[in-house]
Amino acid sequence: MKIKRRDFLKLTAAAGATAALTGCGTADMNALKAAGSTKNIGEAPGQWLPTTCQGCTTWCPVEVFVQDGRAVKVRGNRYSKQNDGNVCPRGHLSLQQLYDPDRIKLPMKRTNPKKGRNEDPMFVPISWDEALNTIADKMMELRTNSEPEKFCLMRGRYTYHRDVIYDVLPKVFGSPNNISHSSTCAEAEKFGSYYTEGYWDYRDYDIDNARYILIWGCDPVASNRMVPAAIKRLGNALDRATVAAVDPRLTTSAAKAQEWLPLQPGTDGALALGIAHVILTDGGWDRDFVGDFKDGFNRFKPGAMVDEADFVEKETYGLVKWWNLAVKDMTAAKAAEISGVPAEQIIRVARGLAAAAPNVCVWMGPGAAMHARGGYSGMAVHALGGLVGGIDNVGGSLQTAKIPVNKLDGDILKKHQDELAKKHTKKEKIDQRGRLELPTINKGKSGGGVSTNNAPNGIINKDPYEIKMLVGYMNNFVFSSNGTDRWEKALSMVPFTVHLTTHASEFSMFSDILLPCAISKYERHGFLKTKANRYATCTIQQPVVQPIWQVIEDETEFPFLIAEKLKERGFSNLHDCLVEMYADPETGAAPKTAQELSLNALKYYTKPLWDGKKDTHGDTINGWNEMLSRGMWNSEPYAYKSHWGGKFSTETKKFEFYSETLKKALTAHAERHKVDVDTVMEKVNYTARGEMAFVPHHEPPLRHGSEAEYPLLFIDYKSRLNREGRSQNAPWYYEFKHVDPGDVGGQDTLRLHPTDATQLGIKDGDRVRITSMGGSGEAVARVWEGVRPGTVSKSYGQGHWAYGRTAASDFAKGTARGINNNTIIPWELERLSGSNARNGGHAAVRVEKI
Amino acid sequence: MTQYAMVIDLRKCVGCGACALACKTENNTAARKYGQTHNWADFIHETTGSFPNTGFRTLPVLCNHCSNAPCVEACPVEPKAMYKTADGITMHNDERCIGCRACQDACPYSMDEVTKDGAYGEYSVISYNEEGESTQPFFTDKTELIKGCTTSGAELVALTGAIPPHQTRYQHPDYESVRRDNIVEKCIFCDHRIKNDELPYCVSACPSSARIFGDLDDAGSDVAKLLKQHQSFVLKEEEGTKPNVYYIRDYSAR
Predict the structure, then answer these.
(1) What is the pLDDT of residue A185?
(2) CATH topology for B4-134+166-248?
(3) Residue A845: which domain range?
(4) Keywords assigned by UniProt (chain A) (predicted)?
(5) What is the ipTM of this complex?
């Protein structure tokens, strides 16, 4: 405050009335309007227009209120059976992303040829023509030299229009390198559900019918995949069911829940097995799902082997094998010793789960699995759902109803691939997926997934070859992947990089050309598939406002514009493929402009939802115009037990406690590399040998840094205001950051337990330096009882050294505001799934007062 | 008679922040400056107990629209800029306000300077718009982050024709959708919406349906029924302000 007005007032109280009469306000104010009059009261005219929010991976169908061509408010789509017309805080926050003065407004090129963390790119504006010509020339050079594989496309967040830029563009051009971000998010989590239930995806959770909700390694009301649905239902669930939250930090769910289990990081497997041990020794498993001993007599006694022949399973496979291999000795007491969660609480929670069976949600989040050795803890957590029958069942975890949209036409794509493209797209990818030490066994296939965080190794070592040209879109891997130093090095080495972006982000700082792109949700076309509350949803994005500047839609317009330029240079295959594949599905007319291609793509993919030809098993939408005006389609509710009766997509068609599916996958991977499974396990940093590799089990957590030098474990979490890494240039982010429990607004907060703080001589509000094997940076200490002693926690998001005036402390100098968690978390992978390992406590740190 | 009131069901509330952000989009309130938060809706957080028996709760806060409003009492102008409407809203008239801040001084839920935030229990339901300065300095700024390549707040305003560019435009005889300098401002229960049979925007926007709005004098209203059904509390009851924002149930189930 600059002037103490009230002090002035005390001296001149009487003068106030005079001031009001003489008028100190603006002339056109409402002085003469009578208070209480209802004349001309209310909102100026506007329209609610449907689109989709991509602030997190809920992918909410939303509506934007538009006045005079400006986006002014956001709410949930009125037709949504997931968010019931409401959005979470991110939905509102996005307005500051749209109207951000630091958005780039035209194409730019780098004029400083030197690349590095501390090199100013010296960007200057260029014309669209110069930008596209330069890019096309570089691409042609690769084709002329018969090395199209040295082109790499990197995809961050996406819509399902990704097909155009992610599949058609590189495949017709001739590169195998379309590297997605997927393993940054939760592939190790999907690994957990796949190698038990046969479902490689996020699960839906039937909160409304659950009697026990065990939340594990996430905070569903803040992040994860169904945020508004969880926000709406948590309060009611607390009245009806028991809610327990497993997390080393006090999340909102943990604060509200009946039980908080603040485990030691990386001990999720042990805790899950401890709970399983109680359920089994108590005889508390769900008979309908799991089956029973032939004579009904429970032989699960602590430490005792059980004869497999004595137990008859129903919907499951391998319970006794699992017990004998991994569960029998993990008593509550032992699990307590490893996890730090008291035995009596483990017993209480296990009995609660059993009592509520089968209406149990075991809600697995990334925190349960995205560890260096987290694949098996993901399986262990998901296996708990299996034990109590809460799989594909009322009040449990669910798979999804089908969304009948069109797929990319692979025949057209192949038709336009020339010999060079056909040959070179078969080359090994730059992330080295599928190598012995990096199985990335997505859906059972060795090398079937992506290992985003291994791409920098491929680039740095030019192994399998050099990447000469990189195009990134809606991504910022050098900020969003742990081990940022490695990415900085890799990106500095790529000779020519194009970034399709809305902001000059960290990735942009290593780029040669930046192309301004539309903000997802407000300015572009696309469609998303999502699910919650038993409903699958297809929701579209469309421009609800006209962009202020000439920006392009990254996924569709960029490929088209480049295709035109390549055609001018004698390579017309991409153009020919695009105009054939994305002809108007109603008239057959080929798109003549990039904008037409975008619209046609949306029309093509969503056509089965609105053309009335087949029963969609969901909302009836009468034609294309209604699709655009509604903006979304809901399925019928998902049918419970769709996969019971031997219909799970596992090897045995059952829910597997002993994973024949994983056994087959690991064996195939081992055979591919002519080694045995034990060698694979050794190469991927796991300790399990023999049969243990096929069952959910506990692995001792990996740790980077000695206890002496780095005594504390770092816990990363996602802020409820994170629009992934894209909301940190919004002033509202800082103003309301304190809505994350334990956080303080306006600062990058590191939460420490009072015991640790006292020992380190750190007081609340002190500036501290946090250092790991990965890097070091500054944060502000918050001494708080909501963190487990021995751990410190900080939300991902801050620590930008680019992006904008608010996100960075000094953009021009590249000075960070706070410290990026991904600099603190040393580079590491969960190698079975190819995931970035960011949880599980491998990030050991020391914290010092500055 | 009508007495508008809000009940906040803490069991349903998850402290997500949507109400306060929605309010900022509806009422186009400024960014924090000079210790003025301009958050007509905000939160305070309380941590109790010790690990692992830590308790935590979030309380959404806003103007309490007190029946015995010290801000109204303190307002020195005639007719008062801060006054009670017939339906119990503590209304603020922009035109009559002289920016003396006596209301802010008198209000037990306001501070003349907020240096911290809800993490430390600090908030202010009344904010003051500094004299002689834009209330939207973020959007009057002319600097470009990368010269010639990025835009500026001022340029965005020029091109969109609104400040802030996402300004929700509405009309009301007492207040404007973006208010001038040298006056105070605060939550007015979105009277421009109530008068059109819409709920205050924070209530509409709450994704957990934790905010319930209605007429306390109508026994059939949801607010009246909830207060009958549940024990409730108000903030700083001892101040005798008779708030019309009530809290029911416990945030935590532990």
Answers:
(1) 87
(2) Alpha-Beta Plaits (3.30.70)
(3) 712-849
(4) 4Fe-4S, Iron, Iron-sulfur, Metal-binding, Molybdenum, Oxidoreductase, Signal
(5) 0.98
